[in-house]
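User: Fold this; tokens only.

Assistant: Input:
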Amino acid sequence: MKLSESKGMRTVSRREFLGKAAAFTAAVNLVPRHVLGGNSVKTPSDTLNIACIGVGGKGTDDSFAAGSQNVVALCDVDDVKMAGFLEKAEKDRPKQAEMYHKAKKYKDFRRMLDENAGLIDAVTISIPDHTHAVAAMAALHMKKHVYCQKPLTHTIFEARQLAAEAARAGVVTQMGNQGHASEGGRLINEWIADGAIGAVREVHCWTNRPIWPQGIERPKEIPSVPPELDWNLWLGPSAWRPYHPAYCPFSWRGWWDFGTGAVGDMGAHIIDHPYWALGLEYPATVQASSTRFTEDSYPQASVVTYSFPARGEMPPVVLKWYDGGIMPPRPEELEPDRKMGGDDGGVLFVGDRGKLMCGCYGNNPRLIPESRMQEYQRPDKTIPRSPGIVEEWIAAIKAGKKSTTDFSYAGPLTETMLLGNVALRMKDTNQILEWDPVKMEIANHSEADAFMRMDYRPGWSL
């Protein structure tokens, strides 16, 4: 769907929505090399040359998943993380370790892309939120296929721009929210489409995040930058500030300048399930409440309420997000000895004829109470299963097809999540904010526009 066909412009039915989801993941026959012109012509079925931006943390998993192809370049601003990745490859991926050692090594992804423009087919991006957009956009401008970790971007403006550029570039994109590739995520879609709980008008989403400090003041100490870290490159497009371990390597998610808080971190996993299963697009309104936060750091806990309009035969939906230990009311149908959701959070769908609950990544979806689950005659599986979030992206490149969470889907989902952060900034107005997705603005509060984008430092741009 084009960005111009945003909320209010077009509606979809359950059948049409699931049909599109199936089409995104449908298997196709690959075209042999000889059909397209002999050995000199590279076909989609050839091994891809992939560059990996960020190899520490989640970047390790993403770079290993890309190892089914030819990884030709690796980039990380931290030499210790690069060395640790190579050591882990020798231990856990011995058959791929030589390939990773031979790959060209860089600290600046811009230089890596420039020097290997004719070699690279695709790029994985697994770095902090504030640098996602500039890295992804640089690759899209070069018409490279892009896999970018969740959340897709740091700001709403960036999400809209990336989705538009991906469409223009005609490449295969994917956001790294691995729960979207899960069996549970597909079961939820199929059961809701089957009418297992009737029409859904209310959804509750919660997480155990943040598991890092939030609602705190900026540190005043100015320690030395570790010799292995290029702090200037780590800051990327964000405003300059002195290095402090309170930001890097782990707790950056809790700072407005670098992360997207709890909803940005986990919404791509948790909100994704109702967003997908219910065919949601842009919310009509959003409102938030929270504990205290600072100019620099997100609140310790928050509640965000989104309202979505009807979509075809699907009714309007109110979706509530909870983090920081706040939970939705416990459903009375849930047995006393059963936990709500999973360790990282969960989703509760409230339908006209019942309730459905799952864990953070769509794991263990169940109708509640369990007696309802046991009575339910499950429908046939209609959505093709995924080999994994990175693997699906690679297969889609070779098949010339969309991935299930490509930027045309991930962009609006990210905008929705980040609207929650805009609402947090505006919570003292005590207003329900009205979102205009066409104009990309809060219709009843122009002051909110300041939180739709970030100012980049010189040398960084989309």
